[in-house]
Write a structure and sequence with these properties.
globular, three-stranded mixed beta sheet
Length: 207
């Protein structure tokens, strides 16, 4: 069995029916999480390079609690500046206009709390979210515009599944548990839609 087939079979088995993780894992500090995110991002860049998609220019910005991350977002044909404080739970996003993935300490604390309650290993949660945000950077290269629609978000999930199947397939076991803990999101889709999108990307590679 070659590596690609092995990864696909593992990804499929992990995603279908996966509801949680068997045993608790040590909680990561913020510094450890930031270090891990940097490693994960480098692995994702390497993977997408093999797919002919160069995202080396995409910046990973680690933001402190007192820093503010700005992003110009098109609203009704006009760019509006949206700002988020690093201490905010929402301070983890991809900004198309600056080609930057922002990760604030507030978002890491939120993810840590979420994983503590759901039993999902923090490393898996970070890998899933990082792969999703990196998926938006890939969309910027492959498509005319990204925008903020459910269809676009689900495609980013699909791209995330594709990349995780190759770089961190064990994290896929936590997809359903993580999104179940987060709950349905009007902008990102239902839990089942998101899991299906990850599964499609992980098993078919077609997004």
């Amino acid at each position: 069995m070659n590596q690609r087939v092995g990864n696909v079979l593992l990804a499929s088995s992990l995603l279908v029916g996966a509801c949680g993780d068997a045993a608790p894992t040590p909680e990561l500090t913020i510094a450890q999480s930031e270090h891990l995110l940097t490693q994960q991002e480098n692995e994702l860049r390497d993977f997408w390079r093999t797919q002919g998609v160069g995202i080396e220019a995409t910046k990973l910005a680690l933001v402190s609690d007192t820093q503010t991350a700005s992003c110009e977002v098109p609203v009704n044909g006009v760019n509006e500046k949206k700002e988020v404080l690093g201490s905010s739970p929402a301070a983890m996003r991809y900004c198309e206009s600056s080609d930057e993935i922002t990760v604030g300490k507030g978002a890491i604390r939120f993810i840590t709390q979420l994983t503590r309650e759901s039993g999902v290993p923090t490393a898996n949660a970070l890998a899933i979210i990082a792969a999703h945000e990196t998926g938006h950077a890939v969309q910027k290269r492959l498509y005319t515009t990204v925008g903020l629609t459910t269809e676009v978000e689900l495609q980013a999930d699909c791209l995330a599944g594709k990349s995780l199947a190759a770089t961190n397939s064990s994290a896929l076991v936590s997809v359903r548990a993580l999104f179940s803990a987060l709950g349905p999101d009007f902008g990102h889709g239902t839990v089942n839609q998101r899991v299906a999108s990850f599964h499609k990307g992980a098993t078919t590679g077609k997004c």
